[in-house]
Amino acid sequence: MNWLSKLFSRLLARVGYDAGGDVTAADLELHDIRRGIPRFAAEKPRSPEWPRVRRAHLEKEPVCQWCGGSTELQVHHIQPFHLAPALELDPENLITLCEKKGTDDHLEHGHLGDFKNFNPQIRQQCEIRQQALKHGSKT
Predict the structure, then answer these.
(1) How many Cβ atoms are within 10 Å of 76's Cβ, its own excluded?
(2) H or E element: which one contains 76?
(3) Residues 24 and 84 in one domain
């Protein structure tokens, strides 16, 4: 196994994927080098409708549902696209969360602090938090 193959194998292992041997550059593209999230060639591609659905969602829900911020917004899939591709365009599976430096609500609350995880209760938790903030309590 050459050094590049070892590097790819380690990166895959960090995100919970067992490559089962040598990994080649053709097996892996870096989807988000900032976070080191791998994107596999066999992964289902995004729907061509995704940009339209994303824009429509941000028009309907233009602020972070956790903090109320309006910058560095992400449209987060509650059930991840790679696990539930049929829900990619389902408005009920989307929530707006921010990725502001220092308060990355997308990572901390949408993914429970680790991009390998997901939080199926994120919408309910955001609603509880917004109610608490409205009544003067910080949670």
Answers:
(1) 26
(2) strand 73-77
(3) no
54 with 114, same domain: the answer is yes
Q: How many residues does the chain have?
A: 139
139 in a structural domain: no
Q: Which residue stretches of 19-117 are H helix?
A: 50-60, 105
> Which of 36 and 81 is assigned the larger pLDDT?
81
Residue 104 lies in a domain: yes
C-alpha distances in Å from residue 67, one per residue of 38, 60, 112, 132:
28, 17, 15, 12
Q: Which residues have C-beta within 8 Å of that of residue 69, sequence separation ≥ 6?
A: 63, 98, 100, 103, 105
pTM for the model? 0.68
Q: Given a cut of 50, is residue 35 above it in pLDDT?
A: no
Query: Which residue range is the domain that position 108 belongs to?
Result: 50-134
CA–CA gap between residue 92 and residue 123 (Å, rounded): 10
Mean pLDDT of the region 91-113: 94
